[in-house]
């Protein structure tokens, strides 16, 4: 055993960041630590999911018209509770809730941040023991500190995010988050129950060998998207094709893998659903921010995702994200749209 091994927990890291930036108030660090706490609680339930009667449908339909699983409800409750009881968040919006929630207690209204999240992404994978995740993003509010937040605080373009991240409940549990200073990954060490720095300063490789897309929808995609996917499968690619296709159906896991190894993830619009499936505020924006900070790129096929001005809390968007060179190649196809 290497006794000299130094470990740095998520808490230690966020505190260290404060020491490095003496003007920081600590509010964002505190918010990130709160999310880490909620993630540990969700992780415990996710791990128990096969054992206890928490699997199965909760019998509700969510605001997207989809079935809600019990674990989704639990994850949502934990995120709301931790952020509401903390002192660093003025309000939240969640993929699972119809409307945003303003925290109107004396402490919360003084917070300068709002948090948006998808508490448990990839929910169709829950009862088949496949990796799922939590996705979050943090914005500075636009309404004055000291007042109760309004919808305006949540309908901001992704470029305004100050932090975004995800937790992947996979073969190990990891929390990855980005601020403008960089992207760092922490793996949950079950022996001490702490997220521990494992992937410092993550950079997305400029190119990769993997593409992730739902092939079942192929004939519903636009011609340029079909042509790009077909090119991914060709041997004569100048940039190392054919690529390997990997699609888990949990965006957190698919994009996490592509972020570490290099790759591209596509969820295009289809003829029946021109805006695709993914939600701009809870899924696309946070990943666009993380991957962009790591050196990659994200678009809706026309403009950078981070520049899209949202008009609704639950709006959907086509989403393309990944390694910079692969994204540039995709864009040469999409220009013909
Ligand atoms: P969810 O929020 O209901 O779990 O849906 C989002 C998920 C993404 O994680 C994943 O990439 C996508 O849905 C898969 O959808 P599809 O089965 O249509 O390919
Ligand atoms: Mg989701």
List its salient traits.
337 residues; alpha+beta; Fructose-1,6-Bisphosphatase, Chain A, domain 1; D-Maltodextrin-Binding Protein, domain 2; 2 domains; eight-stranded mixed beta sheet; five-stranded mixed beta sheet; 23% strand; globular; binds 2,5-anhydro-1,6-di-O-phosphono-D-mannitol; binds magnesium ion
Structure description:
It contains seven helices and 15 strands. It has 337 residues and is α+β, with helices and mostly antiparallel strands. The protein has two domains: 190 residues, 2-Layer Sandwich (Fructose-1,6-Bisphosphatase, Chain A, domain 1); 125 residues, D-Maltodextrin-Binding Protein, domain 2 (3-Layer(aba) Sandwich), CATH 3.40.190. It starts with 9 loop residues before the first helix and ends with a helix. The site of 2,5-anhydro-1,6-di-O-phosphono-D-mannitol has 11 residues, from β5.
Radius of gyration: 20 Å
Alpha plus pi helix count? 7
Number of strands: 15
CATH architecture of the largest domain: 2-Layer Sandwich
State the distance separating the first and last CA atoms. Answer: 57 Å
Percent of residues in helices comes to 25-40%
Output the strand order for the largest sheet: 4-3-5-6-7-8-9-10
Which molecules are bound in this entry? Answer: 2,5-anhydro-1,6-di-O-phosphono-D-mannitol, magnesium ion
Residues in β-strands, percent: 15-25%
CATH superfamily of the largest domain: Fructose-1,6-Bisphosphatase, subunit A, domain 1
What is the typical, i.e. mean, pLDDT?
91
Largest sheet: 8 strands, mixed
């Amino acid at each position: 055993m290497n006794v000299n091994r130094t470990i740095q927990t998520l808490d230690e890291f966020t505190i260290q960041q404060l020491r490095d930036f003496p003007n920081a108030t600590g509010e964002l660090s505190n918010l990130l630590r709160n999310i880490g706490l909620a993630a540990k609680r969700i992780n415990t339930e996710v791990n128990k999911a096969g054992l206890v009667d928490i699997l199965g449908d909760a019998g509700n339909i969510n605001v997207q018209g989809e079935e809600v699983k019990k674990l989704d409800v639990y994850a949502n409750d934990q995120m709301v509770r931790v952020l509401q009881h903390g002192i660093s968040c003025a309000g939240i919006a969640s993929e699972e809730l119809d409307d945003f929630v303003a925290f109107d207690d004396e402490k919360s209204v003084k917070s300068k941040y709002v948090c948006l999240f998808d508490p448990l992404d990839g929910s169709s994978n829950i009862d088949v023991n496949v990796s799922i995740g939590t996705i979050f993003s943090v914005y500075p509010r636009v309404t004055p500190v000291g007042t109760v937040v309004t919808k305006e605080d949540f309908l901001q373009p992704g470029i305004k995010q100050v932090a975004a991240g995800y937790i992947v409940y996979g073969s190990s549990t990891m929390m990855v988050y980005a601020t403008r200073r960089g992207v760092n990954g922490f793996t949950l060490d079950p022996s001490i129950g702490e997220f521990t720095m494992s992937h410092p300063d993550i950079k997305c490789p400029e190119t990769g060998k993997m593409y992730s897309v739902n092939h079942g929808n192929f004939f519903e995609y636009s011609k340029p998207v079909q042509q790009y996917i077909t090119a991914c499968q060709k041997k004569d690619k100048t940039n190392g094709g054919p690529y390997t296709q990997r699609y888990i159906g949990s965006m957190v896991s698919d994009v996490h893998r592509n972020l570490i190894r290099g790759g591209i993830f596509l969820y295009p619009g289809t003829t029946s659903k021109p805006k695709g499936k993914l939600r701009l505020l809870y899924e696309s924006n946070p990943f666009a921010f993380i991957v962009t900070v790591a050196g990659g790129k994200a678009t809706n096929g026309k403009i950078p995702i981070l520049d899209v001005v949202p008009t609704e809390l639950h709006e959907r968007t086509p989403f393309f994200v990944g390694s910079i060179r692969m994204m540039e190649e995709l864009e040469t196809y999409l220009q013909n749209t």
